[in-house]
Amino acid sequence: MLTISRLAAYAGVTVRAVRHYHQIGLLPEPERNRSGYRAYDAVAVVRLIRIRTLSDAGVPLGRVQELLDAHPEEFAGSVQEMDKDLRAQIRRLQDTRRRLAQLAAGEQLALPASVVGYLDRLRGLGVEEKYIEKERDAWIMIAAQVPHSIDSVIAKKHAELDDPDTVKLYGLLNGALDWSADDPRFVEVADAMERLMIRAVEAGEVGGDDGIDDQFVDLLDSTMAESSPGAARLLAILEERGWRGWTRIERVPADRLTTELPPS
After folding, report:
1. Strands 243-244, 250-251: parallel, antiparallel or unpaired by DSSP?
2. CA 257 to CA 252: how far, in whole Å?
3. The last residue of a domain, from among 76, 102, 128
4. Residue 76 in 3-state DSSP?
5. What is the C-alpha separation between 165 and 192, in angstroms, rounded?
6. pTM of the prediction?
7. Could you give the C-alpha distances from 221 to 31, 64, 98, 138, 215, in angstroms and in order?
8. How many structural domains are present in the chain?
9. pLDDT tens digits for range 98-135
């Protein structure tokens, strides 16, 4: 008969592990002998080795009992089931690894490739990073709201960048985040924006269902207005000229116009 320490040594586990298996019911606890010690036999050694083997193979202790007592067919079925679960877990872990790898890529963490490409094109045009970061954050929110149409939206933005006047506008906006609210350059920016908006209205490109609700549009517009000291001033200039909004630009009703629109 074996002591607990000898049992543990023969099975290749610790005494602490043996006691734990007693507590959770995996290994029957033998009666104590006259000296007060537990006495183990070969059956206990075999069972303990099987417990250790299953545990080392990655079988959760909660399922070890099931496999120890299973018939060969049941054992094979349980192993296949656990293998299926492990493969699903591996796929989840691989997906997590891919997402973690994207952390180093910055923008790609929360943006589709089409938006990342658009932002890179802005960088290629010399647009300052500080402004691009503002656009990036807005596109992160927009892409989450209209994931199925974001690529077509970005395609239109690329088409706009083919227009020299749009490129000129981005050039004017460089540094605008640091301008004071009364900086006269905002009038020049408003002039450039207005010319583009008039052309968009004439081409029938303003209006329509963009898939974004009004409350979300208000959120984007308020975020833009709070982005710099002069942002609210720029919006005010445009509204004085008959335009309202930033995310979804609209004409102000005629009875609210304060100035005439300049010729296109």
Report:
1. antiparallel
2. 7
3. 102
4. helix
5. 7
6. 0.57
7. 77, 59, 33, 10, 10
8. 2
9. 777 666 555 566 788 899 999 999 999 999 999 998 99
